[in-house]
Structure to design on (750 residues):
């Protein structure tokens, strides 16, 4: 082989190989747009971005109902799976091609509102059919940024103590009641733990809302200060709110380990009868109902009491794009989504607790097998889901940090101190 | 970046003829031929420019910026690079990537062995075996990851059930920080085995049969033939496979993403450089920093590949 020839080829190959590396990376950030077009006078089609399959079907029914009274406006529901929803939305929003109307959650709301992606609804609300006082207060607050409304509350959730009636009966333990304290729960969990059967009293998952977000308000602590400028993790109250969970896993050993809960997810431990209790959300009702064993054996009680009543609620909002090609049609649809009729339809379909006050009955009745009133009652002690302008910068890193407490590599106090630092640094970087 | 890209092209244009004629005589291209030649490379050239070269140049530019949440960026000079070299997470991910690369390299002797076995004359059902070993290559990574996750499950997985027969209490392979990267590496070896095997088979079959005949007349047994004839004459293939394997390993992402995932307690001990790029750029929205990570990786790949090409003279035998 000729030297000069092989050298050229070699250089080309090295460069090509390296280039392939960068290209593979750059490809992740390429954007895709979706077209608008057409004036608002004739028939228009608007898009409605959502991430949930089951809910998507109900959203389409609501959209079809809207179309009946607004024949000029067709709404196309776009379902993007949760794993890709935010990545795709961010890319689309950057390119000015977000769906006309879409779902928003509390963690991301301030990021999108401050980024100019969402339409400011405050002026539109005057003289419209929407009265923001109709929605559960913390949800109205959650979708207000800088004193202006950017989202119409869609739904709300809360956390309860789900338990397995059959396992309680088999162990001769009385089922949880509304008066249960944390100590009562731990005592029951000990009796329900049976290593020989691979059975645990509770599955203490490390997902924030189902663990420390729920307990920190009950110990008098705070995840984030009211002005959203500092973290509350390094207070004794917050550390206690984390400690109670870590103890279930590492001290009392009444829960599977973090590794066990990673290999087999927490819900599966519960729905397969391998764990007798789990802190899980109102949203789980729809999932558990579909699993025959869980539908038959599961029920739900209020969270056991620590020092004071408390908890956090997360809920979605419907928002519209500031760059929608059909702002009038989008606003019309948004108003319909926020109407009592549409919100009630969500409850009756059994998908969520609507954010519209007094429309939860349909949801409670949709699951006669579970005592879902527990979740509706929990709302009165619920506070807003912790979030800030750029929640993404601290939420995931903090989950990893607390995982170290769950796995026993750090104490709850160490993990809380580190988390406070991560969070305070991130909050300081927000302008 | 631009300066690295252009030279080979320029060289080619400056010296169209010095390249040795390969086999047949080559006429200089007539006008019409040249037109066709350009027309034929046009689709690839356009695709390459739009999807590879331009994004790479942009990525290089972005590595000196800090991103706004929704578009927009400010020039921050070398800030990202200064941060890169003091980032314990990046150092850890580089180490993870090295472990992963070394592991996948161990798959190469395995592929050679397999290829040699399947190249045995008179072996029955060769087609079936070849298809079986090649199957993982044409299986979707998502499916592979799912099945291996089930196998590796610490409580219900078949691997630990198997180990239990011998009284061994297996770990939670994918969630234990001590084992996760190795567990993923094994899957990577397994899924690339078939592809490498096919390349080695092709290499073996291009070795002239006379060599073996001559060797057996001289009294060389099958082992001796393998090490004295097959291995040396296979080195160009071995070299090619090694280079590709290393590049692929340095860019490993999908198996870590699918099998370990961001919420796992083992993610810090198993995330590769590209996974960290994804976490920083996509999950945490720090595009500028992610671009800098991408270029550190590029530099690393260029360096290692150039090194491999330099040392190849010592061990690769072209006929």
């Amino acid at each position: 082989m000729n030297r000069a020839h092989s050298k050229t080829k070699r250089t080309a190959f090295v460069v090509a190989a390296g280039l392939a590396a960068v290209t593979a990376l750059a490809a992740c950030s390429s954007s895709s747009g979706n077209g608008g077009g057409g004036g608002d006078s004739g028939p228009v089609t608007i898009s409605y971005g959502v991430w949930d399959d089951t809910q998507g079907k109900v959203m389409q029914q609501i959209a079809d109902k809207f179309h009946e009274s607004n024949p000029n406006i067709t709404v196309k529901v776009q379902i993007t799976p949760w794993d890709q929803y935010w990545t795709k939305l961010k890319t689309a929003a950057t390119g000015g091609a977000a769906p006309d109307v879409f779902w928003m959650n509390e963690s991301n709301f301030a990021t999108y509102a401050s980024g100019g992606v969402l339409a400011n609804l405050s002026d539109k609300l005057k003289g419209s059919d929407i009265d923001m006082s109709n929605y559960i207060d913390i949800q109205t607050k959650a979708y207000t940024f800088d004193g202006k409304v950017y989202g119409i509350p869609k739904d709300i959730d809360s956390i309860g103590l789900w338990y397995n009636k059959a396992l309680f009966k088999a162990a001769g333990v009385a089922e949880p009641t509304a008066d249960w304290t944390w100590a009562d729960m731990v005592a029951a969990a000990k009796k329900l733990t049976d290593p020989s059967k691979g059975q645990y009293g509770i599955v203490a998952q490390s997902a924030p809302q189902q663990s420390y977000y729920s307990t920190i308000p009950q110990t008098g602590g705070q995840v984030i200060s009211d002005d959203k400028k500092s973290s509350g993790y390094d207070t004794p109250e917050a550390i206690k709110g984390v400690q109670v969970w870590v103890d279930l896993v590492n001290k009392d050993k009444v829960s599977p380990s973090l590794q066990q809960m990673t290999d087999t997810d927490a819900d599966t431990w519960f729905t397969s009868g391998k764990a007798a209790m789990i802190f899980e959300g109102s949203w789980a009702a729809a999932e558990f109902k579909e699993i025959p064993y869980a539908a038959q054996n599961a029920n739900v009680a209020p969270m056991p009491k620590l020092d004071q009543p408390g908890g956090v609620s997360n809920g979605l909002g419907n928002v519209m794009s500031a760059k929608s090609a059909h702002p009038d049609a989008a606003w019309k649809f948004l108003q319909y989504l926020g109407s009592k009729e549409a919100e009630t339809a969500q409850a009756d379909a059994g998908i969520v607790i609507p954010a519209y006050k007094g429309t939860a009955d349909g949801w409670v009745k949709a699951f006669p097998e579970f005592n879902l009133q527990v979740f509706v009652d929990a709302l009165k002690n619920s506070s807003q889901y912790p979030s800030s302008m750029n929640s993404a910068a601290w939420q995931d890193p903090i989950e990893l940090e607390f995982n170290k407490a769950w796995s026993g590599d750090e104490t709850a106090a160490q993990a809380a101190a580190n988390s406070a630092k991560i969070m305070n640094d991130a909050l300081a970087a927000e302008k | 970046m631009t300066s690295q890209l252009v030279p080979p092209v320029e060289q080619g244009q400056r010296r169209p003829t010095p390249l040795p004629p390969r086999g047949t005589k080559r006429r200089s291209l007539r006008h019409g031929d040249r037109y066709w030649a350009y027309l034929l490379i046009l689709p690839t050239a356009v695709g390459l420019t739009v999807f590879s070269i331009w994004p790479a140049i942009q990525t290089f530019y972005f590595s000196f910026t800090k991103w706004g949440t929704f578009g927009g960026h400010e020039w921050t000079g070398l800030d990202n690079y200064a941060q890169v070299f003091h980032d314990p997470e990046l150092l850890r991910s580089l180490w993870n990537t090295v472990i992963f690369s070394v592991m996948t390299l161990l798959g190469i002797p395995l592929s050679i062995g397999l290829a040699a076995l399947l190249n045995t004359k008179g072996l029955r059902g060769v087609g079936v075996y070849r298809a079986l070993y090649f199957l993982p290559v044409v299986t979707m990574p998502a499916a592979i990851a799912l099945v291996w996750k089930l196998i590796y499950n610490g409580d219900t997985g078949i691997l630990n059930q198997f180990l239990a027969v011998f009284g061994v209490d297996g770990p939670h392979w994918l969630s234990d920080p001590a084992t996760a990267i190795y567990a993923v590496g094994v899957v990577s070896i397994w899924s690339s085995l078939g592809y490498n095997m096919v390349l080695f088979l092709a290499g073996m079959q291009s070795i002239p049969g006379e060599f073996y005949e001559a060797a057996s007349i001289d009294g060389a047994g099958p082992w001796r033939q393998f090490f004295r004839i097959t291995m040396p004459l296979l080195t160009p293939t071995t070299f090619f496979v090694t280079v590709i394997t290393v590049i692929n390993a340095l860019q490993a992402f999908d198996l870590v993403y699918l099998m370990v995932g961001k919420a796992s307690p083992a993610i810090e001990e198993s995330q590769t450089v590209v996974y960290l790029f994804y976490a920083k750029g996509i999950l945490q929205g720090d595009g500028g920093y992610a671009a800098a990570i991408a270029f550190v990786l590029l530099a690393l790949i260029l360096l290692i590949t150039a090194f491999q090409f330099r040392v190849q003279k010592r061990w690769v035998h072209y006929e």
Q: What stands out?
A: The longest helix of chain A spans residues 3-27. Residues 181 and 305 of chain A are 4 Å apart (CA to CA).
